[in-house]
Amino acid sequence: MNSRNSSVLRVAAGPALACALAGAAPVPGYPALWSGYLQALDRTCPDRHIDRLSPADLRDALDAYRTQAAPAARRTMLRAETQACRRTVAGAACSNVADLRFLSLQKELPAFARWMCTRR
Fold first, then answer.
1. Which of 40, 28, 32 is nearest to 11 (CA)?
2. How sure is the predictor about 3, in pLDDT bands with cuts at 50, 70 and 90?
């Protein structure tokens, strides 16, 4: 396993461990979702290190991406985030996962990665 793959595993395992320690259930499918996001960034602009954004910076980027989307896509993305995070009190992680899951289901992760690479 190369160092990039092992770092992906460490990053993906982090939230699951944090949830277990806090007594909360981990987000189903999170490791695969995060891996897909990192792979899209790796294919598009590996030297930019966008994968190292803080959760708050990723949140800002996802919000900015959503504002430039078509109105129907904006509403659907916001609805998916609201539904997924209805029991979350604070923090960017739930919203980030919900938006990345939405983009993945819509086959938009590559487009988001391209957008991120030109923006950052």
1. 32
2. very low
> What's the one-letter identity of residue 37?
Y
Burial class (CB in 10 A: 0-12, 13-18, 19+), 109: buried
Exposure of 59 by Cβ count < 10 A (0-12 exposed, 13-18 middle, 19+ buried)?
middle
Type of residue found at 105: L
Q: Give the domain extent around 43.
A: 3-119
- Specify the DSSP class assigned to residue 25: P
Name the nearest CA neighbour of 70 among 110, 117, 119, 108: 108
Residue 30: CB atoms within 10 Å = 19
The string of pLDDT tens digits covering residues 69-115 is: 999 999 999 998 988 888 877 778 888 999 999 999 999 999 999 99
What is the number of domains present in the chain?
1
Instruction: Name 83's Cβ contacts closer than 8 Å, sequence gap at least 6.
Output: 98
